[in-house]
């Protein structure tokens, strides 16, 4: 089997495609949550604590000298990233909880037995006729 055919077999497996779709959706979801935190949650929170913009919170470790930029410890962006993570983790937790509940309900649903095939029906009729002849 050539390298290309092996890669093709690997890439088109259902799990691989599902994983790729999940990664793409996850990246888009991460951008949405980052925007939610940065543009919707943090501004009112900053106003509540005295007009502070969290993305501007930083400690200057070394001032800019000439062409060298300042060395800054941007802890406000770190706080914002922590809030992003908490929201994403909570959303994933809720999604997994919903999926697990759906799986439990699906597993609990009674499975209807399949209808007998033509062969089974004919064999049952033959068996019944043979029983009648013996009586």
UniProtKB/TrEMBL annotation:
<comment type="function">
    <text>Channel that opens in response to stretch forces in the membrane lipid bilayer. May participate in the regulation of osmotic pressure changes within the cell.</text>
</comment>
<keyword id="KW-0997">Cell inner membrane</keyword>
<dbReference type="InterPro" id="IPR001185">
    <property type="entry name" value="MS_channel"/>
</dbReference>
<keyword id="KW-0472">Membrane</keyword>
<keyword id="KW-0813">Transport</keyword>
<feature type="transmembrane region" description="Helical">
    <location>
        <begin position="78"/>
        <end position="96"/>
    </location>
</feature>
<feature type="transmembrane region" description="Helical">
    <location>
        <begin position="20"/>
        <end position="38"/>
    </location>
</feature>
<comment type="similarity">
    <text>Belongs to the MscL family.</text>
</comment>
<dbReference type="Pfam" id="PF01741">
    <property type="entry name" value="MscL"/>
</dbReference>
<keyword id="KW-0406">Ion transport</keyword>
<keyword id="KW-1003">Cell membrane</keyword>
<dbReference type="InterPro" id="IPR037673">
    <property type="entry name" value="MSC/AndL"/>
</dbReference>
<comment type="subunit">
    <text>Homopentamer.</text>
</comment>
<protein>
    <recommendedName>
        <fullName>Large-conductance mechanosensitive channel</fullName>
    </recommendedName>
</protein>
<dbReference type="InterPro" id="IPR019823">
    <property type="entry name" value="Mechanosensitive_channel_CS"/>
</dbReference>
<keyword id="KW-0812">Transmembrane</keyword>
<dbReference type="InterPro" id="IPR036019">
    <property type="entry name" value="MscL_channel"/>
</dbReference>
<keyword id="KW-1133">Transmembrane helix</keyword>
<keyword id="KW-0407">Ion channel</keyword>
């Amino acid at each position: 089997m050539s390298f290309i055919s092996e890669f093709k077999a690997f890439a088109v497996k259902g799990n691989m495609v599902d994983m790729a779709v999940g990664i793409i959706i996850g990246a888009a979801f991460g951008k949405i949550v980052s925007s939610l935190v940065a543009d919707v949650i943090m501004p009112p929170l900053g106003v509540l604590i005295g007009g502070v913009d969290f993305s501007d919170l930083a400690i200057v470790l070394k001032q800019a000298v000439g062409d060298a930029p300042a060395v800054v410890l941007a802890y406000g962006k770190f706080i914002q990233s922590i809030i992003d993570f908490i929201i994403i983790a909570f959303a994933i937790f809720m999604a997994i909880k919903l999926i697990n509940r759906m799986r439990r309900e699906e597993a609990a649903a009674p499975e209807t037995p399949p209808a007998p095939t033509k062969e089974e029906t004919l064999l049952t009729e033959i068996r019944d006729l043979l029983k009648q002849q013996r009586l």
